[in-house]
Amino acid sequence: MATTGSGSLTIALSVFLISATFLLKGAAEIMTVEDQNLGTDNVSVVEGEMATISCRVKNNDDSVIQLLNPNRQTIYFKDVRPLKDSRFQLVNFSDNELRVSLSNVSLSDEGRYVCQLYSDPPQEAYADITVLVPPGVPIIESREEVVSEGNETELTCTAMGGRPAASIRWMKEEQELTGEAMVEETYDRMFTVVSRVRISVTKEDDGVPVDCIVEHPAARGLQAQRHLEVFYKPEVKIVVTYPEGLTREGDNLDLTCIAEGKPHPHRINWLRVDEDVPPHAVVTGSDLYIENLNKSYNGTYRCVAANAVGEAYDDYVLYVYDASTTIPTPTTNPDNTQESRAGDSAPQKIDHAVIGGVVAVVMFAILCALIVLGRYFARHKGTYFTHEAKGADDAADADTAIINAEGGHSNTDEKKEYYI
Ligand SMILES: *[C@@H]1O[C@H](CO)[C@@H](O)[C@H](O)[C@H]1NC(C)=O
Ligand SMILES: *[C@@H]1O[C@H](CO)[C@@H](O)[C@H](O)[C@H]1NC(C)=O
Ligand SMILES: *[C@@H]1O[C@H](CO)[C@@H](O)[C@H](O)[C@H]1NC(C)=O
Ligand SMILES: *[C@@H]1O[C@H](CO)[C@@H](O)[C@H](O)[C@H]1NC(C)=O
Ligand SMILES: *[C@@H]1O[C@H](CO)[C@@H](O)[C@H](O)[C@H]1NC(C)=O
Ligand SMILES: *[C@@H]1O[C@H](CO)[C@@H](O)[C@H](O)[C@H]1NC(C)=O
Q1: Mean pLDDT for the chain overall
Q2: Ligand whose nearest atom lies closest to the CA of 101
Q3: What CA–CA distances, in Å, run from 137 to 11, 161, 169, 177?
Q4: C-alpha neighbours within 13 Å on the C-beta side of residue 3
Q5: Is the CB of 104 under 6 A from ligand 3?
Q6: How many A from CA of 101 to the centre of ligand 2?
Q7: Does an H or E element contain 44, and which?
Q8: Ligand 1 centroid, distance to 51 Cα (angstroms)
Q9: Residues 198-216: tens digit of each pLDDT
Q10: How is 365-403 classified by DSSP, letter by letter?
């Protein structure tokens, strides 16, 4: 105990003396050129983890190495630690290296550490310790909950409390967006980064994820996501529910209006362009129903759907044919589904004729086959009974009867066939 105490005292004394010498000599005389034989490395360490500082000497001639903290207090003098902070531990001490670890690094440990070699002239090398602090999980916010198509929205991503300042990237699905970042240093020497990005949305962007990706040397995989929500005006389509073919005088007409939008259309209207809808037309929900078509109903029928974003419509051109019309005369009707439907009827007639012919031929063939078979069985039924009777008379049991029967084998075959 006493020996160690006096040893420490001696070291402390020499530290004092040598430090004093350094001070007297002045900074100007200290050699710090890279290619001299004292060397060290800068250190980056995540807060709370361990840093290792290594003072290396190439060709040491028994000179003393010591390590100082940024306040120029001696951490290690050779393999002895005058500093009380037990987070500093000796990892390796030899003529060529003084390696010291510092555990549970905090931000206050940041700074320029000094390796000193008591050579002639004395040398110094500097190890800058940089403490990294990972930022918190980013928070993504949207200026508005829902955006209307064609409008622009702004997303904000905030990464708080990192050191150094994080950088933020934006991705909309696979596409990289350019954000605008603002960096703010807080009282505790941390950095808060806020990045803004503007996005002009289309209908297709509804539900698309936007990612805010935080890049920082002390953190990996930090990101936040938000799905865009886009309102868009309705898309309208008229479907003819009835009739399937031509619209003839006296027929009924049933049109259905299919309107989709976000939010769901709150209003679906039917109207007739430039004219009044026939007075007896019935509108039920999105359906338009007109009984007993009349040529005077010719015209353009329009379904208009509206929601908060806007309105849209689809047109149906009604063309009422004579009740007797089977094949339509060429028309200027832009909706040519009626023509194409009427055109279908000609090949259908041919199909019926072909099918009829084939059925007739098949029926005839079956009939012929039945007649031939009938005649065959009528003849052989007689033979069978004759053979069986003959065998049974001569034999003692049934088996012998069959064997005895002339062509007994063929008889059994005939028997089978007869019963099928
Ligand atoms: C250590 O970092 C400082 C800046 O902090 C730099 O000037 C110096 O060149 C670095 N030294 C080495 C060896 O990288
Ligand atoms: C110290 O470092 C030297 C050379 O790098 C190595 O040979 C030796 O084993 C180390 N000693 C310890 C205790 O790590
Ligand atoms: C690390 O240091 C902090 C203060 O900087 C302290 O609160 C904490 O208890 C230390 N942790 C360990 C494991 O020493
Ligand atoms: C966004 O869309 C709404 C319609 O939903 C419109 O009233 C508003 O003016 C638009 N805002 C901008 C900035 O274009
Ligand atoms: C069609 O309507 C006109 C007047 O709107 C009417 O005079 C005519 O009788 C109607 N024709 C049929 C077949 O209902
Ligand atoms: C309606 O269309 C039919 C097409 O067959 C034409 O015969 C009729 O004159 C048209 N009626 C009106 C009022 O346009």
Answers
A1: 80
A2: 2
A3: 49, 10, 14, 20
A4: 0
A5: yes
A6: 14
A7: strand 43-46
A8: 16
A9: 999 999 999 999 999 999 9
A10: HHHHHHHHHHHHHHHHHHHHHHHHHHHHHH-SSHHHHHH
Output the pTM of the full model. Answer: 0.64
Question: Residue 253 and residue 217: Cα distance in Å, rounded?
Answer: 70
Which has more pLDDT, 128 or 323?
128
According to the model, what pLDDT value does residue 382 have? 45
Write down the pLDDT at residue 32. 44
- Centre of ligand 3 to C-alpha 87, Å, is 10
205: tokens are 């962007």
200: tokens are: 């002009």
User: Three-state SS across 152-171?
Assistant: EEEEEEEEEEEECCCEEEEE
Q: Is 148 in the pocket of ligand 4 (CB under 6 A)?
A: yes
Q: Name 44's Cβ contacts closer than 8 Å, sequence gap at least 6.
A: 129, 130, 132, 217
Is the pLDDT reported for residue 217 higher than 90? Answer: yes
pLDDT tens-place string over residues 301-334: 999 999 999 999 999 999 999 988 776 555 444 4
Is the CB of 320 inside a 6 Å radius of any atom of ligand 6? yes
Rounded mean pLDDT of 169-180?
Answer: 96
Which of 142, 151, 198, 311 for mutating ligand 4's site (highest number of atoms within 8 Å of CB)? 151
Residue located nearest, by CA, to atom 1 of ligand 4: 151
Q: Which atom of ligand 6 is nearest to the CA of 328?
A: 5
